[in-house]
Amino acid sequence: MALLAPFRSEKTDLDAVRQYAVSVIAQSDGEDLQMKAVTLALLGGIMWRAAPGSTELMQDPAGAKAILSTTLGGRHLTFSYDQNTESIEMREGTTDGPVLHRFCNRTLVTDFDQTFSALWR
């Protein structure tokens, strides 16, 4: 029996999430340390609930910020960090879509659970 060589994808959901985490944490550097924990908790929820193969990293038209695009519970969502509100905005469809939720250093663990549970129904 021949051993299979490990397959490494050029781009995976995890790669996109990792790059997004680096971008948001760099943008929020110097702000409340808790924002890093919020970012990691949010991205954990995305990895847990996102449709496999649906997550990708994009840049806004000006190239100033990273945007994470994914499908959760059959809904296309985008996540982007807003330096003005010091929060990650979850929007329906595109970055111009309605804000469904803002995740910031005041976000409680139960808020994550409720948000992701509601998307999964």
Description:
It is a single chain. The protein has helices at 13-27, 34-49, 109-120, and strands at residues 56-59, 66-72, 75-82, 87-92, 99-103. Helices cover 36% and strands 25% of the residues. Helix 1 (13-27) packs antiparallel against helix 2 and helix 2 (34-49) packs parallel to helix 3. Strand 1 and strand 2 (66-72) form a beta hairpin. It has 3 helices and 5 strands. It has a 5-stranded antiparallel sheet with strand order 1-2-3-4-5. It has 121 residues and is an alpha+beta fold.
Main attributes of the structure:
single chain, alpha+beta, 5 strands, globular
Helix share, percent: 25-40%
Query: Largest sheet at a glance?
Result: 5 strands, antiparallel
Low-confidence stretches: 1-9
Oligomeric form: single chain
Rounded average pLDDT: 81
Distance between the termini: 44 Å
General form: globular
Secondary-structure-derived class: alpha+beta
Strands of the biggest beta sheet: in what spatial order? 1-2-3-4-5
The proportion of residues in beta strands is 15-25%
| CA radius of gyration | 15 Å
Number of helices: 3
Order of secondary-structure elements? HHEEEEEH
- Work out the number of β strands: 5
